[in-house]
Amino acid sequence: MTATPALPPSTAATSGHDSDPSTPGLRQRTPVRARPSVPPSGTAPAPRSGVALVASLLGFTVITIDVSAVNIALPAIRDSLDSGMSGLQWVVDAYTLMFAALMLSAGAFADRTGARRAYTWGIALFTLASLACALAPGIGVLVAARVAQGAAAAVVMPASLALIRQAYGDARARARAIALWTVGGSVAMAAGPVLGGLLTDSAGWRAVFLLNLPVGAVILGLLVRVPHSPRRPAALDIGGQLTAVLALAGLAFAVIEGGHLGWTSGPVLGAAALALVAGYAFRVVEARHRRPMVPLAMLRDRRVAVPLAVGFAVNAAFYGGIFLLGLYYQQLRGMSAIAAGLMFVPMSAVVTVTNLVSPRLAERVGRRPVIVAGQLVFTGAMLAMLPLAAHTPLWLVLVLLLPLSVGGALAVPAVTALLMDVVPQERAGTASGLLNSLRQTGGALAVALFGSLLSGAGGGFSLPGMRVGLLAIAGLLLATAALSRLLLPRG
Q1: Buried b (16+ CB within 10 A) or exposed e, 239-270
Q2: Is 328 left (phi over 0), alpha (psi -120 to 50) or beta?
Q3: pLDDT tens digits, 201-245
Q4: 10 Å Cβ neighbour count for 103?
Q5: CB 407, CB 77: distance < 8 Å
Q6: How many Å apart are CA 298 and CA 119, to the nearest integer?
Q7: The pTM is what?
Q8: How many angstroms separate the CA atoms of 455 and 256, rounded?
Q9: 461: helix, strand or coil
Q10: How far apart are CA 56 and CA 61, in angstroms?
């Protein structure tokens, strides 16, 4: 579950501009003549527009459900595949890290190949990878299949939104379609834990992945009726993409395995060195590339850099908290998977309501106060969870988790809107792709951190480790809240 869906630049995509910021990493391009099947602005949607919307919505839904549903299935995966905490961390982070890293150039890939073709390839790969996950005989195969799932999801995300932009030429109709797409992501994230718990308890954890097969087949069937998408020129920054993947993988390995192999062990130090070298190489490549996927000059603007840091911190808190709670409910309290999933329902309802309130509140008091308040509420959520123990009354657990529901949902819409306003129109897709990438990275590293700290003696749940992780995330949130207060414009 997350404070909002993955938040591609849907706000920019509804504006009706000729540049296409609806997929991450795009720049302003020479207009390409649309095919007759794409309705011009100001006309009613074509009959097949609804088919494109349903196909896009289903794809976004299935890649979103996969995140939260798998979190609830982790204890069952551990018992079935005889895995330790490190393996469970990789089951989550293999997906998230590939999603985060490839998000930077997935939009350009969708442009070059055409949105429908890219979306078809992404859904086909995601479906096949889901089958591999369901059939995995061991934790290594499952992690490898999750890598493929994450790569496919990175393509599906921007291509699904590009399909909607293609299908709806009228700005108002497109805005309504994107709103439905966004709501679908919220509902999917809220339903994920419950669905994951129900499937795990009734049919086993493999059913969580098998569910993706019929959905993928339906999407591929719908895509047959969707018109071909035009191809647009888009530069692929291969060097930047490879160095970004290496840097994130090295960093994740160091954090995940540091808690299990030892922080001074050879593999951990080697992974940390790889992350540093690859990170420096990424900077060099981006500085020299004619059309970099991450323009370094853009990052020097504090109105861009601070929202990116806020997105990282907020997702670290939320994804880390969800990972922690899924294990807390099942490992420490002995709850069933379905009962653990149901514990997230009130939280999801509050997230949905707060998402609706946040933009209106930002209009009244300004975005900076809302962004700062959201982070401070999230800090309170981390501190409120410190007293959790095996016998804490469930009603009190739900009360303590209310700030976790509010904080991110309050901050993220305002952060995204601010970022979209301060970057040039032709950089909207690039900035949004970078925001989404850093948000996913923050979540992945938080899962790595909590997993390293939560594994107690004999593989049990460590309450002291939980508290160290919560304090670390609270410190990060306080730091980004201070940066937001000092460096962001009030309006």
Answers
A1: bbbebbbbbbbbbbbbbbbbbbbeeeeeebee
A2: alpha
A3: 999 999 999 999 999 999 999 998 888 877 776 667 889 889 999
A4: 32
A5: no
A6: 29
A7: 0.81
A8: 11
A9: strand
A10: 8
